[in-house]
Amino acid sequence: MPCRVLTRAVSVCVPRARLRRICFNPAGEMRSWELLQATQPEAARADGVVSGKVEENMKELLELVPERFREFLGPGNLLRGHPPVCTLQDVVLDLGARPRAFFGKQQLVYLAERHDVVVEQADLDPALAKLDGKFGADNRAGMDGSLHRISAMRAKSGQIYGLTLRVGRAVYGNTKMLTDILLAGTESVLVLGSPGCGKTTIVREAARVLSEARLNVVVVDTSNEICGDGLVPHRSVGLARRMMVPSLPHQAGVLIEAVQNHTPDVIVVDEIGRQAEVEAVRTVKQRGVRVLGSAHGDLRSLVKNGMLKG
């Protein structure tokens, strides 16, 4: 069963000199990118592509941010000259360092005006109390009913001294350019990209589209990042079923278990990259099951990676 490597691009006009960046709003009308950010921030996206309905529900995630830093992530962001909150990607809270947030690539915003304001243990403690017992062996935690991810940095003693709060978004309609491949074909699909570029968002929406096409879709969800935390999968995956993975080393075994126990038409898995996982995916395909997966890198790195392209 072949695996198709797909390269399709969406172009936007990037501002150079006096040119204005343009994009399309949800109604399909061409608009100034800056105007859309100011008038419809919920529709604007950092990459300039407006694609269907976006569900993010950031309220619970932002409650983990200390109150004294949270005001820099509120409605007044645009007045400070910062990117709109709807483009927020990560909030970084490291003990002894300035609190900061990333809004897409190389768009860094400090969450305090003074340079001497740093994250203290008292800032981390309330968030850690809410997340007590939720961190797995991979130092990742989720929030029930949401797609957000919280990752921890630990000292050798086990103490957590840093948190990365990653915003999880469900983007309905972002796989329209793949519809012919997803619904009309039998090929497996590998989504490639750098960290934070939206691979998981595409894989999640593809799982929903395939499941609502009456295919038996099983998601092997290592960090609960595709289907969210909690026993009930997030509604953004449609009718897809989810198999949780105890820890990263068990991912390959759960892939085989999914085929043996649940007769799927399609298996969805995020972040393939280790030898055992590649071999497990190859076994799944040999048994006649389509695989929809993602991996870090690009087409050039895939060609050079004998393990992944095998």
UniProtKB/TrEMBL annotation:
InterPro entries with a match to the protein in the record: AAA+_ATPase, P-loop_NTPase, Spore_III_AA_AAA+_ATPase
One Pfam assignment: Spore_III_AA
CDD domains reported in the protein's UniProt record: AAA
Entry coiled-coil feature ranges: none
Species the sequence originates in: Pyramimonas obovata
Record's keyword terms, sorted: ATP-binding, Nucleotide-binding
The protein, known as: AAA+ ATPase domain-containing protein
Single GO term (MF): ATP binding
AAA+ ATPase domain mapped to chain residues: 185-308
